[in-house]
Write a structure and sequence with these properties.
16 strands, nucleotidyltransferase, multifunctional enzyme, globular, four-stranded mixed β-sheet, 55% helix, Beta Polymerase, domain 2, alpha+beta, Polymerase_NTP_transf_dom, 956 residues, EC 2.7.7.59, hydrolase, Four Helix Bundle (Hemerythrin (Met), subunit A)
């Protein structure tokens, strides 16, 4: 009933000799002399060997010619031959009948993907055992014998045993079964049975039901896309089920076959549905996707459908992709993948347009026909003669619209935006076919650029229109620099989408904030946006901030160059062009400073303010930074990052406004202490005086007043209960962060032990505030990323983290043991490499040395790093932990034991060398030396009690 989508190759596809296989099976049967059970294991071994050899041969050919379609054809043919041999063996030798009755007939048919004559290495084998009537003892035994033999071979078999009547009845009632029968293909057995099913299926199921079938398959497709994120640009796409994957091609052909009654995809060319070029595109897309899927199955040894990071590099190498300047081999491979996925979308759109034009009309003169003619009336659109409104969708007035005026390729989207119209498939199909009309003259024309800027800065849905332009190929053609990053992925766990999709999502975030739809997520930028005068420049910067990705030079610097060339063409003034170029060049600066620097350090703010120079730039950079992070992917943005950015903004705003330095640090600390004393006025005088004497200047300057009050109650309660060790948990839902405060005897490895305990519970540390009290205790606040939405769940989880910290600090659990199971590199991180780097700077802080490390993330890394810093006799004033997918950028503000910067070059080199050793994972010995606890007196007093931030002027 079905035919293959792609025409057969001219080369031989068989990977096993069917006559030779059947002859060897017949020989085994003769040897058994009627006792088939005695040779069953030999039969099974022979079949397994034939299967393994056939698949091995298919893989060898795939590695040689790279043809995915050829590979699945070979495996499909191999399966046909195996099933035919097993079925005939069962009928001839296991359950022979001399004169079979009319009911003792079976047709074995392939359905599903196997019904198309294609079978991926790890796919299920879907079979239909077709009977003339109900099951008989003989048919039941034969079917069972075939199935058990296939199962014993290790194959995954889905099957159904039905009569012709049952097939027709169930196909009418169930779209999935209807689709399976549509794909059915005879493998072996009674041809007349299969012919009967085919004829009755066409007459009793297909006739008159095309509309129902098409609607059901398109709805099924939409639901599948929604489940997978409704984008074809996920960097770990599902090759089978994802948008632009093989299932979309299957759906396209199911619909075409059902509606047009075609046997092969090539027939659509003769019907005028596809052009010759589009058919070739279909062939190439299917061949490529099959090649990828086969490689995935061969590499993983199972039906792996998600193209995950850990196999992308191997598949790229297998398919021959090599590194080019600016792009690795795996990134070039994935770009090809996404371009193919886009082609699949184009083909689907073209087919849908043809279907809409050619679907059967209602019977003439019927009421429904009259109503239909009225409701489907095409209406004029005010202000244009080139486009029409067809039931809420913009379409072309005639097929020469774009040839008459190529600027109409941009105007199409502008008019759709103004009038809130969807797109008729005909309009997008014609636009896709007319892309060559967008030449240098069109790009340079004032009208085309004016229309484009109106689309980009639209107060309605700019991202939606830009996405439609991108899908049609218009955006990349109109802005070639954007075209270079279409379908480009970055081989990184941090980025969830291709570069072009990321940029369009950034515009979408900006538009939503401007329309007041994101006030709860971005309260500050929602307040700032109305005051930003250069709105056009901001939208251009957001659209183009990553436009130079994939080039050999830094993409921020290269992107600024692109902006200087492109902005004048778009109609921006010289000052606006300079502003856009500056925003693109600095678009990562604010994020990096906020996440990797100590915002309580005066020099951090002064240096950042000197780089920004104006409040207008500060506002626009904040907006761009938030849009950029939000558009990276689900879960990347959280309230903690928002809080860091807000803190950096407000601190910098004061400096740029001429404030901040009016009150000295000492004066601010004194005022803070006075406020704390007043808030604790209900305490006993002696108790209050003793408490106020605990804290040094860094604590008073860095910790918010309300947090100081919580700490006071926490320490007071711990002291009254005589606890040497205590933890306190506080959740911050808006910031998506949970705070764990640890009170413990000070110890040089305290932060390392706490970090290890967090790693053992799977908690990701976002930041750490480290303080020492005057009586030799540590008051450390560890901020971990929130995991649960509900506070009750998060508090329970944080309590487990706190108890683990107490257990390892008290010695009840040994740190190397509790983190051992967590320190294996996770599967998703195996394919990534990050060159370890260490930088030490004395220019980033007036009082502290800043150590920044960059390396591949792994469980327990922070614990090992801080242990090394402790071994090097460095006091950590603050730690800032930033993770970008598989890469960590951790920053530590440190001094030596007497509170001085690390200025000796030899010592700096030693620190860098030892940190690189642990970053490279060569620190097993260091991990084994981790202390089991710090409560024992000999450990608590190891360095005289007060070992960190002892100087009243030190720390942050």
């Amino acid at each position: 009933m079905t035919a293959r989508t792609v025409p057969p190759e001219t080369s031989e596809t068989r990977v096993v000799d069917p006559q030779g296989l059947e002859a060897r099976l017949d020989a085994l049967a003769a040897k058994a002399d009627g006792d088939i059970a005695a040779v069953r294991l030999e039969v099974l071994a022979l079949l397994k060997h034939a299967d393994a050899e056939g698949r091995r041969h298919a893989r060898e050919i795939l590695d040689t010619d790279g043809s995915g379609w050829g590979c699945v054809r070979r495996i499909g043919d191999l399966e046909d031959e195996l099933i035919t041999a097993i079925f005939r063996f069962a009928c001839r030798h296991v359950f022979p009948v001399g004169a079979p009755s009319n009911s003792e007939r079976i047709a074995v048919a392939a359905v599903g993907g196997y019904g198309r004559g294609t079978l991926a290495p790890g796919s299920d084998v879907d079979l239909l055992f077709l009977l003339p009537y109900k099951t008989t003892p003989w048919t039941e035994k034969v079917c069972e014998w075939v199935l058990y033999m296939l199962w014993d071979m290790g194959q995954k078999v889905g099957h159904a045993t039905r009569s012709v009547d049952e097939c027709i009845r169930q196909a009418r009632a169930d779209i999935s079964i209807r689709t399976a029968v549509l794909e059915a293909r005879l493998i072996c057995g009674e041809t007349s049975l299969f012919t009967e099913l085919s004829e009755r299926y066409e007459a009793e199921v297909v006739d008159g039901s095309a509309r129902e079938f098409i609607a059901a398959k398109l709805a099924e497709r939409d639901a599948r896309h929604q489940k997978d994120g409704d984008t074809r640009y996920l960097v770990e796409p599902n090759v089978k089920e994802g948008k632009g994957g093989l299932r979309d091609l299957n759906t396209l052909f199911w619909i075409a076959k059902y509606f047009y009654r075609v046997r092969a995809a090539h027939d659509l060319v003769g019907l005028g549905v596809l052009s010759g070029r589009e058919y070739n595109l279909l062939v190439k897309a299917e061949d490529f996707l099959w090649a990828v899927r086969c490689q995935m199955h061969f590499l993983s040894g199972k039906a792996e459908e998600r193209l995950s990071f850990d196999i992308q590099r191997e598949i790229a190498e297998s398919l021959g992709y090599r590194e080019h300047p600016g792009l690795s081999g795996v990134e070039r491979f994935m770009k090809h993948y996404f371009l193919v996925a886009k082609d699949v979308g184009d083909l689907t759109r073209i087919l849908c347009a043809a279907l809409e034009d050619q679907q059967a009309k209602e019977a003439p003169g019927s009421i429904s026909a009259v109503i239909g003619r009225f409701t489907r009336r095409v209406r004029k659109i005010p202000g244009t003669l080139d486009f029409l409104n067809d039931r809420g969708r913009i379409t072309v007035a005639d097929e020469t619209v774009f040839e008459r005026d190529p600027v109409n390729l941009i105007r199409l989207f502008h008019i759709a935006d103004i009038h809130d119209l969807e797109f008729h498939p005909d309009a997008l199909k014609l636009a896709t076919r007319a892309l060559k009309l967008i030449d240098g003259d069109v790009r340079a024309g004032a009208e085309a650029n004016r229309l484009f800027m109106a689309i980009l800065t639209s107060p309605r849905q700019p991202a939606l229109m830009l996405r439609r332009m991108n899908e049609a190929g218009v955006l990349g053609r109109f802005i070639p620099e954007f075209g270079r990053i279409v379908a480009m992925m970055q081989f990184s766990m941090y980025h969830h989408y291709t570069v072009d999709e990321h940029l369009l999502r950034s515009v979408e975030v900006l538009s939503r904030v401007e329309k007041g739809e994101e006030d709860d997520v971005h309260p500050l930028i929602a307040r700032l946006l109305p005051d930003i005068a250069e709105r056009d420049a901001l939208y251009v910067a957001v659209l183009l901030h990553d436009v130079a990705k994939g080039r050999p030079e830094d993409h921020s610097v290269a992107g600024a160059k692109v902006a200087r060339k492109l902005c004048p063409r778009l109609g921006l003034s010289a000052s606006q062009t300079d502003l856009v170029a500056w925003l693109i060049e600095e678009h990562l600066t604010m994020s990096m400073v906020a996440q990797t620097r100590d915002l309580n350090d005066r020099k951090t703010i002064d240096d950042f303010a000197a780089r920004i120079q104006s409040l207008d730039r500060l506002k626009m950079l904040l907006v761009l930074t938030c849009c950029d992070i939000r558009a990276v992917g689900p879960g990347v943005w959280n309230g903690w990052k928002g809080q860091l950015l807000r803190t950096l903004y407000f601190e910098t705003e004061v400096v740029l406004s001429g404030g901040f330095s009016a009150v000295s640090r000492r004066q601010r600390a004194e005022r803070t202490l006075e406020a704390l004393a007043e808030a604790l006025s209900d305490w006993d005088e002696a108790e209050r005086a003793a408490y106020l004497d605990l804290h040094y200047e860094p604590y008073l300057l860095a910790v918010q007043h309300e947090d100081q009050l919580r700490h006071a109650a926490f320490i007071r309660e711990s002291d009254r209960e005589g606890k040497k060790l205590a933890t306190m948990v506080e959740t911050h839902a808006f910031h998506a962060i949970t705070e764990i405060t640890v009170l413990a005897p000070d110890h040089p490895r305290l932060l390392s032990i706490i970090a290890g305990a967090c790693a053992a519970t799977g908690a990701n540390i976002a930041d750490a505030q480290i303080f020492t009290t005057s009586d030799g205790r540590a008051l450390d606040t560890i901020l971990i990323n929130r995991e649960f939405d509900e506070d009750e769940d998060e508090l329970r989880r944080a309590g487990q983290v706190g108890r683990m910290i107490e257990d390892v600090l008290s010695g009840r659990k040994r740190l190397p043991d509790v983190i051992a199971s967590k320190t294996r590199i996770r599967k998703r991180e195996r394919p990534f490499t990050v060159t370890p780097s260490v930088t030490l700077s004395n220019a980033l802080s007036n009082k502290l040395t800043v150590i920044e490390i960059t390396c591949l993330d792994r469980p327990g890394l922070l614990s090992e790093i801080t242990a090394v810093l402790s071994d090097l006799s460095l006091d950590i004033a603050s730690a800032h932990i930033t993770t970008f997918g598989e890469k960590v950028v951790d920053t530590f503000y440190v001094t030596d034991l007497v509170g001085h910067k690390i200025t000796n070059e030899n010592r700096q080199a030693t620190i860098a060398a030892q940190l690189k050793t642990v970053m490279a994972g060569k620190s097993d010995a260091a991990r084994e030396k981790m202390p089991s606890g710090i409560i024992a007196p000999t450990q608590a007093n190891a360095r005289g009690g007060n070992t960190r931030n002892r100087q009243k002027t030190g720390g942050a």
